[in-house]
Design a protein that fits this description.
This is Cation diffusion facilitator CzcD-associated flavoprotein CzcO. InterPro entries: FAD-bind_Monooxygenase_sf (IPR051209), FAD/NAD-bd_sf (IPR036188). It holds the Pfam family Pyr_redox_3. It comes from Actinomycetospora corticicola. The protein has about 500 residues and is an alpha/beta fold. The chain has two domains: about 230 residues, FAD/NAD(P)-binding domain (3-Layer(bba) Sandwich), CATH 3.50.50; about 150 residues, 3-Layer(bba) Sandwich (FAD/NAD(P)-binding domain). Helix content is about 30%, strand content about 15%. It contains 15 helices and 20 strands. The strands form five sheets. Strands 1, 2, 3, 4, 5, 6, 17 and 18 form an eight-stranded mixed beta sheet that branches. A five-stranded parallel beta sheet has the order 7-16-8-9-12, with no helix packed on it. Strands 13-14-15 form a three-stranded antiparallel beta sheet, with no helix packed on it. α12 runs parallel beside α15. It is globular, with a radius of gyration of 24 Å.
Length: about 500
């Protein structure tokens, strides 16, 4: 099957990209989705108790499709998933999706100038391949000695077992990241004993969460400009936090003070307060928000173990002090494969070079996290160094989706069959990001985090203002790319071939 564009994934990235392409007049599009049904990506898959967004609701939607009906200032998972389902229906995107189709790899063919996308249901051919998989889709499970001996139930928070009744059970939770601080307060009142194994404490700030009244919903519905202004105010507030993260860590000290007081208000045990207080600067790791996490840890049936895990036995978990903590269920709240999320895919570009080998040699170099030299017509959404610690990644997705649509339109406008980012452009772009990261709290804050790759380089965070990213990507620059081939050289199968209507012309390079 041939399509002009194949998009992998149907979460915020995939749906946003399909809409940006349609706006540019590019309609021969297929979306591949590994799930058997339903759109939404990580917001479809993560259904653990208490799952919610830690970015204000009105910043967590496409700017072109605002939602006036959020029930709370921080949206719970079912509402975000419902928003994405309604987005797909409203724009008739489901007809583009091939469900139960997981990409396993892709191969560039220089002769035909096409990608062959390998999937669990067969092969797809396309001229342009867009990865909208994101980084939060492959659960990361630690390798613990003796884990295979455990006789109880085990599962990861991203694969929550709703058929496992936790009431009255002894539960061991491994990990204290963004997922754990949401589900631990939900299950703590149900279980007989909860043992939380913490490797490194997180900075947790109070969450300004509250119901959104009916009057405000109706106001936003009737006056979308007011909602737009409200969204702009939220954006500005979140964006201002980047100043402290980038170069002025002293500006984060008031937030650290608030976080310390947040612990002390809920917990009276000095030893537990000490265990939960980070020894690194706020912002070095992902900053979390919660109002009920610390009260849950103060419950008499909850114990926080910070000495690490030595092994798992048939009936529990042994810490490094030699104490065995009995457990009927083990839940991993250990996050996702982020910097290595693409390692399981065999993506082969020019001259038989794989993406894995290219990134292993020089690190995950990209141009704006979107394109990679020697991998023509391949685009990444939320690729390396485009994640955020201070604002909404949906904003970044919209910048990238617009950029990709402009790039494809440029190929059409020049009558070419493809483009490849120039090596010197990618190297310069990557070096600029690495240089800014060196000055930021993520490098100098005194921690290690999931932001880092195996070599210790931060390949996750965009270092600075999202406004800067918007400014740098708002206009596709043809001079950054090598264009190749003529449309007349491009062999398109007669079945399912793309037509040429609606292709936006592109201005000459400047």
């Amino acid at each position: 099957m041939f399509s002009e564009v194949v998009i992998v994934g149907s979460g915020f990235s995939g749906l946003g990209q399909a809409l940006a392409l349609r706006e540019a007049g590019i309609t021969d599009v297929v979306m591949l989705e590994k799930a058997p049904r339903g759109v939404g990506g990580t917001w479809r898959d993560n259904t653990y108790p208490g799952c919610a967004c830690d970015i204000p609701s009105h910043m967590y939607s496409l700017s072109t499709d605002p939602n006036p009906d959020w029930s709370r200032s921080y949206s719970p998972q079912p509402e975000i998933h419902d928003y994405l389902e309604r987005l797909a229906d409203r724009h008739d995107l489901r007809r583009l999706i091939r469900f139960s189709t997981e990409m396993t790899g892709a191969t560039w063919d220089e002769e035909s100038r096409t990608w062959t996308v390998h999937t669990t249901t067969g092969e797809y051919r396309c001229r342009f391949l867009v990865s909208g998989m994101g980084a939060l889709h492959l659960p990361s499970k630690p390798t613990l000695p003796g884990a295979e001996r455990f006789r109880g139930e085990t599962f990861h928070s991203a694969e929550w077992r709703h058929d496992v009744d936790l009431r009255g059970k002894r539960v061991a939770v491994v990990g204290t990241g963004a997922s754990a601080i949401q589900f631990v307060p939900q299950i703590a009142p149900l279980v007989s004993q909860l043992t939380l194994f913490q490797r490194t404490p997180a900075w947790v700030l109070p969450k300004g969460d509250h119901p959104i009244g009916t009057w405000r919903k109706r106001l936003f519905e009737k006056a979308p400009l007011i909602q737009k202004a409200y969204r702009g105010a939220l954006y500005a507030g979140l964006e201002s936090r980047a100043i402290g993260f980038m170069s002025r860590p002293e500006l984060l000290r008031p937030a650290e003070w608030i976080a310390r007081k947040h612990i002390e208000r809920s917990i009276s045990d000095p030893a537990l307060v000490d265990r939960l207080t980070p020894r690194y600067s706020l912002g070095c790791k992902r900053v979390l928000v919660s109002n009920d996490y610390y009260p849950a840890l103060a419950r008499p049936n909850v114990d926080v173990v910070a000495s690490g895990i030595a092994e798992v036995t048939e009936h529990g978990v042994v810490d490094h002090d030699g104490v065995e903590h009995p457990a009927d269920v083990i839940i991993y709240g250990t996050g996702f494969h982020v910097t290595d999320s693409m390692d399981g895919l065999e993506i082969t570009g020019r001259d038989g070079r794989t993406l894995r080998s290219a990134w292993a040699e020089h690190g995950m170099r990209t141009h704006y996290g979107i394109t990679v030299t020697d991998f023509p017509n391949l685009f990444f959404l939320l690729g390396p160094n485009t994640g955020l610690g201070h604002n909404s990644v949906v904003f970044m997705i919209e910048c990238q989706a617009r950029y990709v649509a402009q790039a494809i339109s440029a190929v059409h406008g020049y009558g070419c069959s493809g483009l490849d980012v120039r090596a010197e452009v990618m190297q310069r772009s990557d070096a600029a990001v690495m240089q800014r990261l060196e000055k930021g709290i993520w490098t100098r804050g005194g921690c290690t985090s999931w932001y880092l790759d195996a070599a210790g380089n931060n390949r996750t965070i965009w270092p600075g203002f999202t406004l800067r990213y918007w400014a740098e990507t708002r206009r596709f620059r043809p001079e950054d790319y090598e264009f190749f081939g003529r449309s007349s050289d491009f062999a398109v199968p007669t079945t399912g071939a793309a037509d040429s209507t609606g292709r936006a012309p592109v201005p000459a390079p400047v």
